[in-house]
Amino acid sequence: MSFLPFLRDNARWVAGGFLLTFFSSYGQTFFIALSAGDIRAEYGLSHGQWGTLYMVATLASALTLPQFGQIVDRWSARTVTLIIIPVLAFACVMMALSHHIALLVVTIYLLRLFGQGMMTQNAMTAIGRWFAAQRGKALSVTAIGVNAGEALFPTLFVFLALAIGWRNGWLVVAASLILLALPLISSLVAVERAPRSKEEIDPRPAVRDWTRGETLRDPYFYLILLGVMAPGFIGTTIFFHQVYLVELRGWSIEVFATTFMLSSTLTVISALIAGNLVDRFSAVRLLPAFLIPLGIACLILSAVEAQWSAFAFMGFMGLSYGVSSTLFGALWPEVYGVRHLGAIRAVTVAIMVFATAMGPGLTGFLIDLGVSYPLQIGVMGLYCFAASVLMYFVSRGLAARALPAPEASATPQP
Fold first, then answer.
1. Cα 399 from chain centroid?
2. How far, in Å, CA of 269 to CA of 364, rounded?
3. Residues in contact with 26: Cβ distance below 8 Å, sequence separation at least 6, in sequence order
4. If residue 95 lies in a helix (H) or strand (E), which one and from where to where?
5. Which residues, other chains included, contact 360 with Cβ-Cβ below 8 Å and sequence gap of 6+?
């Protein structure tokens, strides 16, 4: 099925998934970091202290997610939506009103758990279950919601903060969740989807439904994570310290803000292309290539001081982000089945949140110690190339394991 007919026939479900990830932006690092300068100034925090606080709150959300995130296996996407969006809105109100450091930690915890964590968890799990042969296309559209948020929300919030103050800006964010996101998304995902024709049946061999316990005992699970987690770790680190990077290079913050549009545009394009490639070849076969552009991006940003390097970084990062966002949704049901997808995804999202927490905290600590930030970025680039080599062997191993066995119910061996 071509893309436009697919979107026409499945508009309500892919729109619901898209909007869930779109509004998850309010709990993503790139959005929270827009207020980082004001937060550090008002609370008297250094780069390392702010990074550590952010890391602690995010790690707490990551520890909560494996248990709380399983609600997507028991309740409908609509019910979960009616729970998580009001809590996310409450967190935004707390960001606007809090003046105590303890409340700030709780606020970041709620933003990360219910924004980046549960909004994404609800979207990707529902779409992963609702689609089979067209899963790649559906997940690619869902995944680019956060990239649309990256393209739109930073500019809007910067101008909003200039006009009414950063705290009042967070009140507007909370209102948009209650008045716009909640009624719209809950109505779109109210109807559960099931395959309606033979065309939607996945022609690839059926995958046994692994339990979460079996998945956690599979060595390939952890090898995959070494590659899949890299974009979140690196992107979050760069976004979190974006103000410091701009000051370090002597760039214009206004010009740097425009690079998000380039990154988001290329992310959307590469995500949609990746969706078609996943449906045609499989997510497993795409594993070895998706980190290469991100490695190039990091090396350029590390070595080049001219402001054009920010555009080059964002462009190459967008290519990797687009593919990885689709892979992150398609890979798990492709390798481990869909019956326990919510429980498995809760673990993977928690680990992703853990990775995004470690980035700002670790780099902030190293910055305070005097370790060159560009040098840190260069090391991240080298890691991407090393991980790409590892993903080549992981891809081959998973492909060999997926070969049809005499008994479909036999337990696969790693």
1. 25
2. 32
3. 88, 92, 111, 115, 153, 173, 177
4. helix 77-97
5. 29, 51, 54, 55, 236, 237, 240, 241
Torsion sign, CA atoms 28, 30, 31, 37: positive
The pLDDT assigned to 2 comes to 67
Other C-beta atoms closer than 10 Å to the C-beta of 71 total 17
Nearest of 100, 91, 118 to residue 53 by alpha carbon: 100
What tokens were used for 270?
């590469």
Of 208, 240, 233, 222, the closest CA to residue 335 belongs to: 208
pLDDT, block means (10 residues), the chain with 414 residues: 75 92 91 89 86 86 86 90 96 94 95 91 86 80 84 87 93 96 94 60 62 90 90 84 85 81 85 84 87 95 91 92 82 82 82 76 84 92 95 90 54 45
Tell me the domains of the chain and their CATH numbers. 10-188+207-401 (1.20.1250.20)
d(CA 59, CA 78): 27
Considering only CA atoms, which of 115, 58, 109 is closest in space to residue 85?
115
The residue type at 274:
A
Q: Which letter does DSSP use for residue 404 in this model?
A: -
Per-residue buried b or exposed e for 223-256, using 16+ beta carbons within 10 Å of the residue's own CB: bbeebbbbbbbbbbbbbbbbbbbbeebebeeeeb
Looking at residue 150, its pLDDT comes to: 79
Burial 97-130 (b: 16+ CB within 10 A, else e): ebeeeeebbebbbbbbbbbbbbbbbbbbbbbbbb
Its sign, for the CA torsion 140, 145, 110, 154, is: positive
CA dihedral 56, 31, 348, 394 (to 10 degrees): -120
- Owner of token pair 């009624």: 183
Q: In sequence order, which ranges of 242-340 are alpha helices (DSSP H)?
A: 242-249, 253-281, 292-303, 308-336
Distance CA 347, CA 58 (A): 14
The reply to whether the predicted model has a pTM over 0.85 is no
CA end-to-end span of the chain, whole Å?
Answer: 34
Q: Which residue has the tokens 């993503």?
A: 28
- Whether 51 and 361 have beta carbons less than 8 Å apart is answered as yes
